[in-house]
Structures are given as C-alpha cells and as structure tokens.
Amino acid sequence: MQCLLVLEPDALPDAASLAALRARAPDLRIHLRIDAAEVPGPALTLAQDGVAAVVAGAGDLARLANRLAVHEAEAGLPDGATRIVALIGSAAGVLGAAGLAGASPRLAGLAWDAEALADDLGIDLDLSGAWPAPLAQARGQVVLAARVAGVPAFETVRRDSASLAGTAEAARLDGFAGIAVRDPAEAALIAAQPPL
C-alpha cells in the first residue's frame, strides 16, 4: 500500500526529519499542498515529489500545469519535473474527476478529502460510522476516475481510525492504491505496516 504525505507549506518538517522519515519509508511520496489558483514559487523548492492541489476539473489541472511550467522555466528545472496529485474535495471536483484523464501528463494521482467534501456539501461528518451516501459515492468516483486516468487513487485516513492496518486493507479491497495522510507520524505508522 502506497503512502502519500501531503504537507502544508507552513507545516513542513525540517530537512533532517524528512530525511529520517524517508529512511524509514523509502517508497513514501511527499507532496506539497498548494492552492491550484496560485503557485507559491519559493515554497515549490520544498516540494519533494510534487504538489497536491484541490481541483474542480480538467481546466483547473491544465491551468496549474501551465503555472508550474512557468515556475520550472524560471527556476531552471526540466519541464514537467513537478508532478501533481489532484485532490477531490468538492462536489464540482467529484463531478469533474472523470475529465482529468489526459488533461496533463503531470497528473500523478487522485486523492479524496472526506472532511473538505463533507464541508462543501454541508454534511456533519461522523468519522466513526459509515460514509454518508454522497461521500461513499464520491469515494467510488475517485477510484473510477483514477483508473481511467491511469494513476493511483489514494484513500482518506479517518481521524479516529483504531486500526491503520484495517483501513489499508479496506482501501485495497475497494481499489485504492494507497492512503493519503497529512501528518508525518501517520506516514511512519503506514510505513511500519507489513505489506498487504
């Protein structure tokens, strides 16, 4: 099970901590969360494997890819060096996810954000119970859209998950290639799990 660590620019661990995490989890993918509408140039130098951004469809993804191309040219980086994981966190994003296939060769994965989506839909989210119907549908849409795009789909970690191994197994059975987390400690726990 792959692990995608999505870090906010203002909450990045220091270089030594990231190196230690990489040593424990060599397959870990670390993406910097950015706003798709604006690319913070200096922060992009901190992106490890790419960026993650909430997108509502192919247009958002293509515009972000163009902004990244400009940044790479200005920074002397190879064109296409910065990969994108599209975060699905709105109703528009769920409905537009199928259109992400072919929108940019930078697309490296799709992840869904249950908390953001619940907020967008005005749903009170009980993380200990079953997903409400719209979230369950969105979760399945992400798997299908990722399959069409030929990229991995990443599950959301429930904040009160008692068993990370159980979460990973359920995600695998439902077609997810990995789990997206926001906390380096969660990433370390996933890395410590035996392969499924």
UniProtKB/TrEMBL annotation:
Residue ranges crossing the lipid bilayer per the database entry: none
What Gene Ontology terms describe what this protein does at the molecular function level? citrate (pro-3S)-lyase activity; metal ion binding
Name the Pfam families on file.
Answer: HpcH_HpaI
Q: Does the keyword Lyase apply?
A: yes
Give UniProt keywords alphabetically. Answer: Lyase, Metal-binding
Q: Which residues form a coiled coil?
A: none
* Main enzyme class: lyase
Q: Which residues form the HpcH/HpaI aldolase/citrate lyase domain?
A: 55-171
Q: Tell me which Gene3D superfamilies the record gives.
A: Phosphoenolpyruvate-binding domains
Record keyword Metal-binding present = yes
- List the EC numbers from the record: 4.1.3.6
Q: Which InterPro entries match?
A: Aldolase/citrate-lyase_domain, Pyrv/PenolPyrv_kinase-like_dom, Pyrv_kinase-like_dom_sf
Name of the molecule in the record: Citrate lyase subunit beta
Give the originating organism. Methylobacterium dankookense
Q: Which gene encodes it?
A: citE
